Write the structure tokens for this entry.
Amino acid sequence: MSQRTLLVTGGAGFIGSNFIHYWLNNYPEDKIINLDALTYAGNLSSLADIESNPNYVFVEGNITDRELVNKIMDDIDVVVHFAAETHVDRSILNPDVFLQTNVMGTQVLLDSALKNNIKHFHHISTDEVFGSLELGSSKKFDENTPYDPRSPYSAAKAGSDHLVRAYGETYGLPFTMTNCSNNYGGYHHPEKLFPLAITNLMDGLKVPVYGDGLNVRDWLYVQDHCSAIDRVLTDGKKGETYLVGGLTEDISNLDVVKLILNLMGKSEDMIEYVTDRKGHDRRYAVDWSRLNKELGWEPSVVLEEGLEKTIEWYKDNQDWWRPLKEESKDFFEQNYKK
Ligand code: NAD
Ligand code: TYD
């Protein structure tokens, strides 16, 4: 196969950095340009091992910077768009930047992709755009579920999804889209539930659980997400959306935290119930059967195995997460109320 050049936006973040590692391992002949603004969530140490790879180039910059984006897009075959503001709790405290990056930034990329005749624009989105399912119901989100975003984060992501489809319909932009569930694994910022729980427990601190802890998320190991994106980039139909989910069946936050406590040999006294998130979505569940039937993808890592790997990763990479946790101190103080 001839060399392809991929523009990865947000490649210094959690999923983006995992994806770049995945891609360069599986397609070492391809070239990757990583455009990332290095916000609090972007971290070049996640990519330190590939810094000197001749097929990898890092550009520090903002996706809302039209001139810069146009300059970079010149030689690109495929865009894989991860860059976003992603933390729901931060979106509740300060929605502005979510609209700037997730909506306006996506529009700049779309304009530039059209201008430069990009062959494939892949947009990474979330199951949160579909809103909240009833606790106890067996319903799952699928590709036909209507949008019903309920947080500033998910509303801004929904805006970006609509724009991508509109550019497909109106201008013929060749796009694909994936909406995935909650990812977990290494390089995950320690403000998010799993890494927060693991790193707190390593330091003898309690794990904050919002409300009654009965909210349900669908958990997807990040390597499984990368293989799903690979399937869609390789064989996905242009103009189509695929949902990506994991192997969990309705597990509550409380039960996941208990599993982490158990795997780390800690007692349930280490759970601390804190004031619930405003507008906290109750339940997410993802039907990923379309991606399975049409492109042959399925997740391979069950939660317990993925958690064991993730716990090991945080034990082995303390130099990576300790400075990030220190930088997030103000956020932690603002966000958590007993
Ligand atoms: P993250 O917050 O860890 O990383 C986001 C990256 O984007 C960071 O490196 C940050 O510096 C960069 N960035 C932010 N604003 C930017 C801007 N204006 N210009 C350039 N770069 C900018 O996010 P993540 O968890 O890796 O999520 C990646 C994508 O996947 C997002 O689009 C998110 O909505 C989606 N997603 C994530 C999850 C999840 O569980 N993490 C679930 C579903 C969907
Ligand atoms: P999070 O990792 O922030 O992902 P999202 O809100 O995008 O799903 O949170 C996952 C779940 O864990 C969500 O239901 C909120 C809950 N949660 C807590 O109970 N305590 C915490 O400290 C955090 C960060 C999240």
